[in-house]
Each structure stands twice: as structure tokens, then as C-alpha cells.
Design brief:
The chain contains five helices and nine strands; from the N terminus they run ββαααββββαβαββ. The protein has 185 residues and is an alpha+beta fold.
Length: 185
Amino acid sequence: MDALQPGHYWKTPFYWEPGCPPPPAEASLRFEPTPDDLFRNAIGVVMASSLDDSDRFTVPRIGRGAAVQELFDLLPQYFERKAGWWRMAKDQEGQMVGFVLPVTFREERLWKDGRPQGTILYMGVLPGFRGRGYGLELVHEATRLFMAANCWRTFCDTGSDNVPMVNAFRRAGYVERKPWQRPLA
């Protein structure tokens, strides 16, 4: 890798396309659409304890609530959020363990043959439930949604230092690309 530029961090991109291993048909977690206020709280909790350099930079700088709002502000400009796609994950006891926020890119130059490209806007496992493989389950759920919506490809990236997320994408069969630098702010 090149030398890291000041004010930047490494992101590792991943792609899932037809031909990559499909996710299991059945989920081990229960996924439910959830009201935005519950998502906002869960996102804030995950951001405040995240391994991602971007979150570790943003939350102390502007606060948890403003960091969550910045994420929501990206939606109308760049992404389309399909009804019911944002899902809260619950374990067998009914405890909320994490969430996944799949979206599609609005920009048609990222589409192919009239089919959108999907991405995970944000996802996270709540701190008390980490280390149990739930990140992989979140990636699988998003991939199932993208496949059902006939997305031609799924593109995601994560902070290169966020080893659990990097490993989840690898285990889900996503194709890893060369890391790139992104500005922190």
C-alpha cells in the first residue's frame, strides 16, 4: 500500500456479483423492518464504539447524534431506500443484536442494463453481541435483498482496520479489491 495521506484512512472495497457464492436461503437471526427512531439510536450506539476510523474521527468531533444525522443526510442525494429494506436483527431470544441498512445508488451511471447497484449504507452489531458471527448474518441479509431486487452488483466498503467487517465480507464470498484512501472528514 502507498503511504497514508494526512487526514485520510484506508477503506477496503468489496463486490458481490452473480457467480459469487449466494447467501444461505434461511437466516439464523430474525430480521424486521423497524421505525427510524430505533435505527437512529442503534446506529449511534454502534458509531460510538466502532472500529471504523471514520466513526472514531466523526463521533468525538461532532457528537453521536450529529454523526447519525450526517448518515441520514446522505440518503436523498446519493441513495434510494426501498420500503422495508432497513432491518433490525434479533436473536432467538428476541434481543436486538444489530441492523443493516441496504440501499441502491441513485446515479444511473452505476446501473447496468437498467438494473441498480446495491450497497450497504451502514450496518453494525451492538457492542454486547459482537464476536458471535452476526456481522456475516447482516451481510447475508443485505445480499438476499439485493438479489431479490435484481441488482446487477453489490458494492460495499469498510475501514481496513475494521477486521471483523473485512472478515464478514470475505466469509460472505464478496470479491475483495485493493484498498484505497478516503478523507476522514
